[in-house]
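Thread: quick sanity check before group meeting

JM: Hey all, I'm pulling together slides for Thursday and realized we never actually wrote out the predicted structure for the chain we discussed last week. Dropping the sequence here so it's in one place. If anyone has concerns about the input, flag it before I start.
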Amino acid sequence: MGRLHDRVILVTGSTGIAAAGARRFAAEGARVFVTSRTADHCARLVAEVSERGGEADFVAAELTEEEQVDAAVDAAVARFGRLDGLFAVAGGSGRRFGDGPLHEVPLEGWRRTLDLNLTSQFLVARAALRRMLGQDPNAAGSRGALLLVGSVLARHPVPGLFATHAYAAAKGALEALVTTTAASYAPRAIRVNALAPGLVATPMSARAAEDPATAAFAARQQPLAGGFLDPGEVAHAAVYLLSDEARHVTGQVLAVDGGWSVAGALPEG
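JM (edit): ok, ran it. Output follows.
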């Protein structure tokens, strides 16, 4: 029996860390519902999970739109009967909107970056909470668990390579959201935690991985990985925080960063 046997987990995003999470959750016995804006990505991921013997479904949704988020959560519950976990990964770089050093960020770029990385998380967390609050606890006494995805950059900036201040602000706000909501919903048997990944090999980071300076930084600053992390390493931590093994863990931000956050500013070479 898997660590997530008979649990229903909603995953936002359909590539990179989200895809790795969906695969692992299904392998651990969960029924997985995927949602992201790109239907083709969702369909491929669900087909892969199903071919491996897992149970999964999806709906495409724009996760910055309230009505579409609510409809996606409703669809997950309609498909599988309840909602035990949320793995909220969907987000992305705001560079295309003008994110960068604060004095250069246009107001519209600030708003769109926060919508992509903070408002989307708020909307899906709110919709999931509303469902969890209305359902009976499971056999372990839990109504559900929310797991948001932040970034190591919220606490450990690298201005020479990642001076994207709106993105970092959004990820920092997620940490505050985790703390405050965890305190509020613990008496209702709902846990709220976050992961703070370092540099992970995903479609979002593909351009950074091709940059020699960034690749050299990852090799130095993430010594446990010796470079960019595999998305599966983040999925391992997600399984733990969504499982009953973490039933007494809430309000925490777990860095999965290959050592970045404790390595300090390592010298080149």
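AS: nice. The radius of gyration is 18 Å. The chain has one domain: 8-203+231-257.
JM: adding both to the slides.
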